[in-house]
Design goal:
Elements (H helix, E strand, L loop, with lengths): L2 H18 L6 E2 L1 H8 L3 H20 L4 E4 L2 E2 L10 E3 L5
Antiparallel strand pairs: 1-4, 2-3, 2-4
Helix pairs in contact: 1-2, 1-3, 2-3
């Protein structure tokens, strides 16, 4: 694995670890992922774009749901805060 792939895998694990701590149907903010990975504000803020990219790939594979005000959106789209959650059971 490359360093980027390792970092992305770590982000994926952190996303799902935080979701596992929540009730079914609950969501998390990408900043929670960043803060769990980096203690200092400059570092966690710098990680946000990458976390959104990873979330977008997970959503594209149907493993994650990305929403803004309850509506599904692209993880990297502009327009305000997003939430990450597990997809609804089929």
């Amino acid at each position: 694995m490359t360093q980027t792939a390792d970092a992305d895998a770590h982000i994926e694990r952190q996303i799902f670890a935080l979701l596992d701590e929540r009730a079914a149907g609950a969501t998390i903010c990408p900043s929670e992922v960043a803060r769990a990975m980096h203690a200092s504000e400059p570092r966690w803020r710098a990680a946000m774009p990458r976390i959104r990219e990873v979330a977008g790939r997970l959503a594209g594979r149907g493993l994650l749901r990305v929403t803004r005000k309850g509506a599904e959106v692209e993880a990297t789209s502009e327009g305000g805060p997003i939430r990450l959650g597990r997809p609804a059971p089929r």
